[in-house]
């Protein structure tokens, strides 16, 4: 990873997402009240409020043949991530982050040959630039249930909530979650907050400590999110 990036969501963002998800307003911004009324994790939310949660930066590419590169680009007020999953000189493009040039530049600088594109969901901060990349490399979005990249099997996991048809992609020890999970927080439950929480639980219950690559903000791990995600209240 090239540089440290900030958490996508601060205390106020998390409160706002839970409020709109539950369709109510908190009676006070006092931490105990917020967590009780919005069913959030007190310890985790306190740490985020105190700006003490920074997911550890692991070297998840160490001596491995399957690698991940993050491409982070500015999109309006914030930043959005897309990723390259790399094996030898081949790669898969995961989301196109609204900026075809940045994606192409990264692929060219690493001298990779992209095989196909995967999309976590259809919002245009993640899919913008898609047509340009498709045309430039003559590749398409892979919509198959069974995804094969080199000798690796990728699993498509349905994670509705942020959108109805949001998906996550799991391969080896990596999990690409789009706008389902952000370090310490979740994407917005713009399709269904209830389903978003269910999808989040489903991911947390996976019995392996995957590296999580979100659509916004820093990468994290399942273990770290079990402990530090404000929405994990189980
Ligand atoms: Zn989105």
What does this structure look like?
The protein is α+β, with helices and mostly antiparallel strands. It has one domain: Ribonuclease Z/Hydroxyacylglutathione hydrolase-like (Metallo-beta-lactamase, Chain A). Helix content is about 30%, strand content about 25%. The strands form three sheets. Strands 5-6-7-8-11-12 form a six-stranded mixed β-sheet. A four-stranded mixed β-sheet has the order 1-2-3-4, covered by helices on one side. A two-stranded antiparallel sheet has the order 9-10. The radius of gyration is 18 Å and the shape is globular. The mean pLDDT is about 95. Zinc ion binds next to loops.
Task: Note the main attributes of this structure.
12 strands; six-stranded mixed beta sheet; four-stranded mixed beta sheet; binds zinc ion; 234 residues; 8 helices; alpha+beta; Metallo-beta-lactamase, Chain A
Topology diagram in text:
Elements: H1 11-22, H2 31-38, H3 42-49, E1 66-75, E2 78-87, E3 90-94, H4 100-109, E4 113-118, H5 124-127, H6 130-137, E5 146-149, E6 152-158, E7 167-171, E8 174-178, E9 181-182, E10 185-186, H7 193-204, E11 211-214, E12 220-221, H8 222-228
Bound molecules: zinc ion (ZN).
Residues 121, 123, 126, 162, 179 line the site of zinc ion.
Can you tell me the CATH superfamily? Answer: Ribonuclease Z/Hydroxyacylglutathione hydrolase-like
Shape: globular
| Regions with little confidence, pLDDT below 50 for 5+ residues | none
Strand order of the largest sheet: 5-6-7-8-11-12
Q: How many strands in all? A: 12
Name the hetero compounds present. zinc ion
Helix percentage range? 25-40%
What does the oligomeric state look like here?
A: single chain
CATH fold group: Metallo-beta-lactamase, Chain A
Q: What is the N-to-C succession of helices and strands?
A: HHHEEEHEHHEEEEEEHEEH
Largest sheet: 6 strands, mixed
Rg measurement, Å: 18 Å
